[in-house]
Amino acid sequence: MLHTLADHLEIIWGALLAAAIVVLLTPAVGGMARLLGVVNREPEGQRARPNVPRLGGLALFMGIFVPSLAFLPLGGEMRGILLGAAVATTVGAVDDFRGLRWWAKLGGQVAAAAIPTMYGTWVHRFTFPVIGVHELPSWVGIPLTIAAIVALMNMVNFLDGMDGLAAGVCAIAAGSFCLIDMSLGRTDAAILTAAVFGACVGFLRHNFYPARIFMGDSGALLLGFTLGALAIQGLLKTAAVATLLFPLLVLAVPILDTSFVVAKRLKYGEPVHKADRYHLHHRFLNIGYSQKRAALTMWGWCAILAGAALATRFLKPHAHGDWRLWQTLAVAAFGAAAVGASIYMVYLLEIVKLANPRIRRREQEAREAAARRTA
Description:
The chain is built from 15 helices and 4 strands. The chain is mostly helical. The strands form 2 sheets. It has a two-stranded antiparallel sheet. A two-stranded antiparallel ribbon has the order 3-4. A hairpin with a 3-residue loop joins strand 1 and strand 2 (132-135). Helix 6 (138-159) crosses helix 11 (252-267), helix 7 (165-183) runs antiparallel to helix 8 and helix 7 (165-183) runs parallel beside helix 9 (216-236).
C-alpha cells in the first residue's frame, strides 16, 4: 500500500484539493441557498435551528468533481461513476429546492444508479461461502447493482438528520475504502475515494454542530451514490469472499440504522418513505445525549467497525493458507471490540429503554409530537 501511495501522490493531492474546495466554496453555496430560499424549515429543536441553508451537496460535488478532472482518466468506469454522481446530485438539488414526490425521487435515484452499469460497473461475479466463485449474468448483476446503490443513497439520506453525522460517517467510510483500494492496487478508485474523504472532512468545517449549512438531499444522494458505486467498482468485483465483508463492516452503521427504521415503520403501518424520529441518532437524543455527543458516539462506533475491516485486510491472519498466531489474535481483538461496541449500542438504545419508564415516556412523547406535526 505504501508503494502505491508513493507512486501515486495524486491520491493525497486529490484529498487535499477536495477539502480546500469544499471549505472555500461552502459559504458561497450557503449564501446562494439563502437567496433562493432553500433553507431548513424544521421548527426549533427538531434539528439544530430553522432557516439554516441547504444545498451543501453542491459544494461537495465540486470538491469531488474537480480533483477527478485533475487526476483521473475520464473514461470507462470512472466516467460512468462521475456522470451518475452528477445526476444524483441534480435529483437531490431539485428535491431540496422544489420538493419531489417519493416516486419521482426514487425514479431519479434509479436513473443515476443505472448509469455506472452502462460503463461496466456492476457485480460480474459473487463469491458464495463453501460453493465458491460464480459468474453472474447481466440480467442478475445489473439490477442487483442498481438496487444496492439506490439502497445506499437512501441510507445516507436517512442518516443526515443530525449536524455532522452523515459527513463524518461518510468520511470514515471513504477513508477506509481508499486504504483498501490502495492495498488492492486500484489507484483510480483510491483517488476518487480520497477525494470523497477530503470533501467530507472539508464540509465538516461548516456542518459540525452547530451547523451553518446542511448537505441536503443533494449531498446525501451524492455521497451514498459515490460510496455505493465505488464499493462495487473497487471491492465487490474481486473474487475474494472477504472483500464482501469490508463494505458491509465499514457501512454497518447506516445499514443498521436504515434496517431498524424500516422495520419500525412497517411495524406501525407507516409509509417507508415518511420521515419520523425512529433513527438511531434520535434515540441518542431521547436518552439525553447532546447532538455533538451523539454524533461523536456514532462516529466512534463506525470507526471501530471500519477498524475491524481494515485489520482483516492488512493483518492477514490466514496468509498463504497458514494461520498466523499474532495476526489472528490481533484481528480477533479488533473483531471483539467491534462486536462489543455494537452490543453496547444495542443495549444503550434498546434494552435500557425497555427498563427505564422515563426514557420510554420520552420516546412516546416524541412520537406523539411528530404525529401532531404531520396531522
